[in-house]
Amino acid sequence: RTPVLLDCDPGIDDALAIAYLVAEHRAGRIDLAGLVCTAGNVGLEDTVANALAWLDLAGAPVLPVAAGAPGPIAVPHVLTPETHGSRGAGHAELATTTRAVDARDGARLWVELARAHPGELVGIVTGPSSSLARAVALDPALPGLLARLVVMGGTFRGHPGNTTPVSEWNVDVDPEAADRICRVWEDARAADPAVTAPLWCGLNLTERAVWTPERSRALLAAADTPLIRALVDALRFYFEFHESVGEGYLAQVHDPLVAWIALHPGSEVSEPAHVRVECTGEHTRGMTVADVRGQRGRVDNARVATDLLLPGGAGAVLDEVCAAIAS
Ligand code: BDR
Ligand code: CA
């Protein structure tokens, strides 16, 4: 069973990713080896508490859950309670849990799980890259130890940002961390081309994962469980947020799409690129700048996801995510 580490900042769509991965673990299809929580959608204390509560609701086995970076590398952490609610779970009331937090720092957990499963671990990042940036500082060999790294981050091919006109939220929170990931993988692949380039799933792809109130109703009808009730309550807040920014009463659920892609290698269309993150631009800070034509003459440090091969696209992925969560 493929060992999987999720680095997340729950967060409403992160909660869907957690529920999906736990379902896959319970079905024996993956080994959910650990969670790292990073400050992002809400502060670190809340992302940790939420992750533990969602794991409880999903019926996850005991697994290490570690607190990672408490904020970005170089700038203060800006919270956006209007997106995921003041505690990061929308309208869901999450119970406190008796599940313990791992004593290790999140960066340490990244390194130890990668070392425990050399060449096998699939890493998924659905929050800012702050903890992963610390992990690669702790162990520069990390890129060569992972089977695959799939990141929800950035926006490509001229697709507009969701935080500034050119930046996506996870990258915008901590551009220095995201850029460090790009630089570290560039160095690693320059030294050893066998190192797998991270797959960047940006808004150009993930905004296709649209969750509607009908989907919530169908999920509840399929299985009326405490987990699903809490997810539906959380999602209601996400609908309200999207409506408030003119997207309609629906929600873009980036993170479960990316978790599904991570478990289905080859399910996406992607192109090799040299990606860097703009960290200084007055109007472009947080922009993911992909060189897909080799104009910089640098080794490809990324693959940029552009499409899905699954017939039915992102909607079909969400169908699979729902079926797993309801099972
Ligand atoms: C990303 O930002 C967060 O608010 C979501 O959880 C997702 O990971 C989308 O830009
Ligand atoms: Ca997230």
List the helices and strands and how they pair.
Elements (H helix, E strand, L loop, with lengths): L1 E7 L3 H15 L3 E8 L6 H15 L6 E3 L13 H4 L21 H11 L4 E5 L4 H9 L3 H4 E7 L16 H5 L1 H17 L7 E3 L1 H4 L3 E2 L1 H10 L3 H19 L6 E2 L1 H10 L4 E10 L10 E4 L10 E7 L4 H14 L1
Helix pairs in contact: 1-2, 1-11, 1-12, 1-13, 4-5, 5-8, 10-11
This protein binds beta-D-ribofuranose and calcium ion (CA).
The site of beta-D-ribofuranose has 13 residues, from helix 1, helix 7 and helix 12.
GO molecular function, one term: purine nucleosidase activity
Pfam family, one: IU_nuc_hydro
Protein name: Nucleoside hydrolase
Number of E strands:
11
Fraction in beta strands: 15-25%
Describe the sheet with the most strands.
9 strands, mixed
Q: What is the structural class? A: alpha/beta
Percent of residues in helices: 40-55%
Bound molecules: beta-D-ribofuranose, calcium ion
Q: C-alpha Rg, in Å?
A: 18 Å
On the 0 to 100 scale, the average pLDDT is 97
* Number of helices, where a helix is a run of at least 4 consecutive DSSP H or I residues: 13
Helix-strand sequence: EHEHEHHEHHEHHEHEHHEHEEEH
What order do the strands of the largest sheet run in, or round the barrel if closed? 3-2-1-4-5-6-11-9-10
Overall outline: globular
GO biological process, one term: purine nucleoside catabolic process
GO molecular function: purine nucleosidase activity
Protein name: Nucleoside hydrolase
Keywords: Glycosidase, Hydrolase
